[in-house]
Amino acid sequence: MNTTKMLISGIAGGIAAFFAGWLIYGIVLTDFMAQNTAPGATGIMRAEADMVWWAMIAGNLLYGLLFSYIFNRWGQVNTLSGGLTGGAIIGLLIGAAIDLTIHAQMNIFTLNAVWVDVAASAVLGAVTGAVVGWVNGMGKKA
Which domain holds residue 50? Predict the structure, then answer.
């Protein structure tokens, strides 16, 4: 496994995850998620001005590095399309596992919001995976 390639593709994937997450959650789903927050869970979301940016950036970089590690260590994924497919599956599984566990234990979001978030997680994973796969394949001869 090429550690340098893994780090570069992981950082690229983390940057892609940050911007895709901003688009998906910060713009497209903001109103939907707010409307589907359980009545007792008001005030759980931080305003953008109150966001803990170091944690957001670190979380997205770790997300990209997770995909890169999986793709480089076990998957040998080095194409945009392979990364898109693998990323969508990983994102869907991570999203479903986390969302369903949280839904089972906490009264935060409606079940509709859970399913929408699972789908959004698949899209976020697809974008992240596509970038990681694409960067992994850079420099390879056809």
Answer: 7-137
